[in-house]
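Lab meeting minutes (informal)
Scribe: AK
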Amino acid sequence: MAHAEITWIGGNRYVAADSTMHSVVVSSPGDIGMKPPELLLVSLGTCAAFDVVKIVEKQRVKLERLSVEVSGEQATEAPWAYTSIHLRFKATAANLGQNQLEKAIDLSMNRYCSVRATLSPDVKVTFDAEIQSPGPSDG
C-alpha cells in the first residue's frame, strides 16, 4: 500500500515524506516549498516520464534526454480544481520516430500512468511531443 506522511512545520509549511522517506517541502505561494496543486502536475509529469522512458527503452532506442513541461488551467472558484492539463514532451534520441514517441506517451496516459488514472475524467489531459536531434559526440 502506498503511504505518505505530511508534517506541519510552522506557518504554511509542511514536509511531505513518502514510504521510502524521500521528502519535499510543500508551502503556500511565494514561500520556500512547492504549492500542492503544482505538486500534482509534477506527479503527473513524472509518472508519464517513467512510463515513456521504459517503453522507449524496450523498443531498443537509446534515449539521451527526456523532459516534460506540464501546465494546468484551474477553475476560478473554490476548490480551484484543474479543468485541463497539458504535457509537452521533449525527447532527444538518434533513432526515435515521432509516431513512436507519441504512441509511448499515449500508452502512458491511457493505460499505465496511475496519476492520470486517478484524475477525474472531467479533467481534459492533452499532450504534444517534440523530438530533438542529439548533439555532436565528444569523441
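Next up, CB showed the second protein from the same session:
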Amino acid sequence: MDLYTWLVIGHVVAVILALALHGVSAYAMFRVRAEHDRARLGALLDLSGSALTGAGIGLLVAILLGIWASIVGGHFGRLWPWASIGVLVVVIGAMTPMAAIPMNRLRIALGIQRTKAGDPAPLPGSDADLATALAGIRPVAPAAIGIAGIAILTWLMRVKPF
C-alpha cells in the first residue's frame, strides 16, 4: 500500500477513537441531568473529562493525518477538504458553548474545578448553585449538531463532491 492509503486508514482510525471517547463524554452529559448525588455527579464529570482528553488527542491526530492525506492525495486544490475543515470549526464552535461551558459550570458548582487559573482551591457551591448548573445542562442540541457534523464530514470524505 502507498503512503496515501496508510494516511487515510490512520485518519479513519483516529476519527473512530476520537468519536468513541467523545461519546463517553456525551453519554455522561445525558446522565448528569438525572443525577443529584454530588459524589456520583463528580464521578460522571471525572469520567467525562478524562474521556475528552483522549478524544482531543484522537481528534488532533485525525486532523493532522487528514491534512497530510489531503496534501499527499492532491486534494487541497478541491473544495471538499476546505469544506470539511469549515464543518469541523462550526461544530466545535457550536458545541463549546452548548456542552463544554455548561459542564464546566457544573464542575465549578461541585467544587471540582476552579473558575479560572490561579484562583484558590474551589469550594462546593450551594444546592441552589448546583440546581442552577444542572438546569443549564441540555445535551440534545449538541448531540444533534455532533451527529449532523459526523454525517456531513462522512459524506464529504466519501463522495468528494467538489
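CB comment: The chain has a mean pLDDT of 93.
No objections, moving on.
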